[in-house]
Each structure stands twice: as structure tokens, then as C-alpha cells.
Design brief:
It contains 9 helices and 15 strands. With 402 residues, it is an alpha+beta fold. The strands form 2 sheets. Strands 1, 2, 3, 6, 7, 8, 9, 10, 11, 12, 13, 14 and 15 form a 13-stranded mixed sheet that branches. Strands 4-5 form a two-stranded antiparallel ribbon. Helix 6 packs across helix 8. The longest helix has 19 residues.
């Protein structure tokens, strides 16, 4: 990375029921003194409406800010990531109109409701002042991102043509099924409820949706470019790896390889896979009654649920966690998620795992509506596809984590 650093702080003061704004007030003098001492330029851009964080990020990069810091919750981080990835080239680089080449770094000050990206990054172990110091002294490492192509919520006909596709990026976890419904509920929850913190509000919304609103959906999915899970996982784990490039469903250390970048797949303009007869050819499609279906770049979701304990941001592949046909009777399974207890053998009939670089998910009944969520934001619904983008973001991490 360049020695010259110019910071753009993208602040959503309403994140975490106003926690982001109040935390920044307590930090701003420290930031000012520390950055002045180190002769570092910086500016703050305060959001007032949805979309501001993404637009401010684009403008900041174009105006020679080469360190973008998101201040807020996972939704704010998601907006900033979308601005970052829509502006930068492969590997987080940007070429200015004058020909100057820069690597753009991304960091966070996590003051929102869920706090799942900070857990994935290991920042939850540090105080706000220490997190500022990490922005200055941390290690920048290229991490993966995900691209989701999904159907607009107002598209009642589930039309899959390329003119009605929403494209959004994510850095941590995407899900559909109950996960999408829960995030939609949390995003409109009253401030008094959100003030209890991410773990409480997400768990209460999960129980509420499970008990009164959510019905499991019949879904079909297809994996492309799969890999086997790590050799150190428990032998009882149910593995669903299956695609045209995979020749084994056993738990071993052998990995299937792909020579293509998933973000450049020849299925780029489709929500379904590149099999033109996908609804007729079931050879590589799997189907089940789904409670929630998670595509994990990072390890945590839902205010601290340790959903994908083997996931990391740097391996070039998604960890997939599928919950099948659950109900209120399975509350012990849901409450175990915070300690990764869903990997226990007693939950084998309800939980399955896989790894893949691309995932295509469709509805069996086109009349169903199933929301898609990305880092807690709900941009659309099924059908959808998910594609990993390796080494897309220059992520600032604590030195001890790297």
C-alpha cells in the first residue's frame, strides 16, 4: 500500500439507535489529535438517507481518498462496500483520470446493532480507541466479497430477464428464507427494541417469525465449483457438495479446483444456472423444504450467531449452511447457534454444510415470495445467484488477527 494515506470516514449517525453518532462524538477529538500528529488528512461524510454511504464512498475514491472507513452497523458497511466495489477494479485498485493508480483500503468502526462483521474481523475484542489505532497501524489484506443477483421485490412475476435483475455486493453473510424475513423485521423494529443489542433483537425476531409468520419453503439449488470442507470438521457433519466439477461427497482434504473467476462466470446475466434446461434437468439440482439457506463469506450472522465456524474471508469460496424444515420445536437448535452448537450430531437431520464458489437458488412454487438478505440488508427476493469475488477488498485488520 502507498505511504500516503487520506481517510474518508463515512458516518451513519443513526446506526445502532444513534450509538454510532454518540460514539463518534467521543472519538472525534482523539481522531483529530492522532491524525494531526501523524500528518494524515481526513474528512467525515455524514449520511442522512439510504444510499448516502454508497454515494459518498464513490465520490471519496474519485477524489483521492484511499482509505474508506465505515462508521455504523453491518447495513452501513454493506452500503460502503457496494460503493467501493462499484468503483474499484480487481484487487481493490482505482485508476484516476490523470492515470494515477491507487490501492483503496477499507476499514470499519463498528457501532451498529448486529456487529457481525466486526466479529468476523476480530474487532470485537478491542475498544473504540484501539479500533481507531488499528486503522492507522493494522495490516491491510485482500479479502473476498460476494456478488448477489436477485429479483426485485416488486417483480410479482419473478421475471428472470436481465433487465429486472438487482446486483448487490456483500462482505459477510447472505441468506434467504427465514434469514431474509428476520432481517426485514429487524430493520423496521422500534428503537426501544433495537436498544437491547443485536443478539437480543435478532433472536426475538427469529422466534417471532418462526412462531407466527414464517412457513418453510420448497427450494431447489445448484452449486458450481465446489470444494470439500476442511479435514478437521466433525465426521458426523452432513455435507451436500455436489456439482458438475465435484467427484466426491466424502469428508477429505482433497479440493476440487476451478480455473475461472466466479465473478466472470458465463452465467453473469442470469439468476438461474447456465444449464438452459435447468427446470427439466435435475442431475445437478438439489431440492428440500428450507427454513433458511445461508451463503457465508464470514463466520457470524444475526447478532453473534456463529453460523459458519469454518468460514474465513480469504479462502476464495463460500461456506454454505442449510437449515431444513425447522419449526418452533427446534428452538434449542436456534439458541445453540451462538456457540456453533448446530454442528452437533443431534442436529444432523436439520443442518447441512457445503462449499462452493457459485450458488443458484430457485423457488419450486413461483407464487412464493422469499426475501434475500445481504449483510442484514434486504434488496430483493428469489430466484437469486451468488458468486464469490476473490481478493476484492483491501481490508484493514488487527495485526494479531492476520
Amino acid at each position: 500500500m502507498t505511504n500516503y494515506r487520506k481517510f474518508a470516514f463515512i458516518l451513519n449517525p443513526t446506526s445502532g439507535s444513534g450509538r454510532a453518532g454518540s460514539q463518534w462524538q467521543t472519538l472525534e477529538n482523539f481522531v483529530s489529535e492522532t491524525f494531526e500528529k501523524n500528518n494524515i488528512q481526513w474528512s467525515v461524510f455524514r449520511t442522512t438517507q439510504r444510499g448516502d454511504a454508497e454515494n459518498f464512498t464513490v465520490s471519496a475514491i474519485q477524489n483521492h481518498f484511499n482509505v474508506i472507513v465505515s462508521i455504523g452497523g453491518d447495513g452501513t458497511h454493506n452500503e460502503v462496500i457496494n460503493g467501493y466495489l462499484k468503483t474499484t477494479n480487481s484487487g481493490g485498485s482505482f485508476i484516476h483520470s490523470n492515470g494515477k493508480f491507487e490501492q483503496i483500503e477499507f476499514g470499519i468502526l463498528p457501532f451498529g446493532t448486529g456487529g457481525d462483521l466486526q466479529r468476523t474481523m476480530g474487532l470485537d475484542k478491542f475498544s473504540p480507541i484501539e479500533q481507531v489505532q488499528i486503522l492507522l497501524n493494522g495490516i491491510s489484506r485482500p479479502c473476498d466479497a460476494g456478488l448477489c443477483r436477485c429479483t426485485p421485490i416488486n417483480n410479482s412475476n419473478n421475471d428472470n430477464n436481465s433487465n429486472s435483475i438487482i446486483e448487490r455486493y456483500f462482505i459477510n453473510v447472505a441468506s434467504c428464507g427465514l434469514g431474509g424475513a428476520v432481517c426485514a423485521g429487524v430493520n423496521v423494529a422500534p428503537s426501544w427494541m433495537r436498544s437491547f443489542g443485536g443478539r437480543v433483537v435478532f433472536f426475538l425476531e427469529t422466534v417471532k417469525q418462526t412462531a407466527w409468520s414464517w412457513t418453510n419453503k420448497e427450494l431447489k439449488w445448484r452449486f458450481e465449483s465446489t470444494q470439500l470442507l476442511p479435514p478437521n470438521i466433525p465426521p458426523h457433519i452432513t455435507i451436500l457438495n455436489s456439482d458438475s466439477n465435484s467427484n466426491s461427497n466424502s469428508n477429505s482434504n482433497s479440493n476440487s479446483n476451478s480455473n475461472s473467476d466466479s465473478s466472470n462466470s458465463n452465467s453473469d446475466n442470469n439468476l438461474t444456472s447456465n444449464d438452459n434446461n435447468s427446470h427439466l434437468n435435475h442431475h445437478n439440482w438439489q431440492q428440500d423444504t428450507i427454513f433458511t439457506f445461508a451463503i457465508c463469506n464470514g463466520a457470524f450472522q444475526g447478532g453473534g450467531m456463529h453460523l459458519a465456524p469454518w468460514a474465513n474471508l480469504f479462502d476464495g469460496i463460500f461456506d454454505i449452511v442449510i437449515f431444513r424444515n425447522c419449526s418452533l420445536r427446534n428452538i434449542p437448535l436456534l439458541s445453540s447457534l451462538y456457540s456453533a452448537g448446530h454442528t452437533a450430531e443431534k442436529f444432523n437431520d436439520k443442518v447441512a454444510f457445503a462449499r462452493a464458489k457459485e450458488i443458484f437458488i430457485e423457488l419450486i412454487d413461483d407464487k412464493d415470495q422469499v426475501f434475500v438478505e445481504l449483510d442484514g440488508e434486504v434488496p430483493g427476493m428469489l430466484p437469486a445467484s451468488y458468486h464469490v469475488i476473490p481478493k476484492a477488498i483491501n481490508l484493514i485488520l488487527p495485526p494479531q488477527i492476520v
